[in-house]
Amino acid sequence: MSKKGGGNMLKVNYCIFAAAFLIQLNIAKEAYSNFDAQFNTQCPLTPSIWDDTPFEGKIIKNNNLRKKVGSPDFAEGEFINITGKILDSNCVPVAEAVVEIWQADASGNIVLASNKIDKNFAYTGTAITNNLGQYNFFTIFPGVVDKQAPRIHFKVKHPDFLPFESYMYFPNNNLNEFDSSLRNILDKKEKNLLISAYTETINVPVTYNFNLTLEGVNKYKRY
Predict the structure, then answer these.
(1) Where is the Intradiol ring-cleavage dioxygenases domain (predicted)?
(2) What is the domain range of residue 18?
(3) What is the reported pTM?
């Protein structure tokens, strides 16, 4: 082969290599762009609702409210499961967030009320989110208190975020439109953020999904 022919072949090989490199570079850029967009999506913040009279009882360090620790007896009422995620404003899961809840029993009594309370019900519970920001509680469907809609009070604590409190409501409940706290939220989209989603399940218990988005971002924005 002549030197001229060898030079042409070298140029062809170089062009093929350069074209392949550019294709791979564009693929990498697109993949990074999609990855970057995934973690820069803005999640709508969950509206906060703070009680005028803060809860002063003891929060039990257990995510099963249906019965007290060490007791074989279950509380009265419909057994439900609550699942969800704690997210930052970029939709990134918040790990190791402390999620506390308190609620009424099936008859609408609260833990600080009279001796009418259900002695087998825990009334409060605690869960800690995993690496995916997930939490769950086993509890019962709450009764009506002071003509307010059935609801569960949530409090979220994490060292990288300000403390957060709000209510979780249940879908398609007729009392939601009369609940004083929900009525104070004028924006319908924000109001819907406080209403949990019913999840179809084959087995009991009935499951409700409730995600909360906190203001602020994780220190480590990408995994």
Answers:
(1) 74-215
(2) 1-38
(3) 0.79
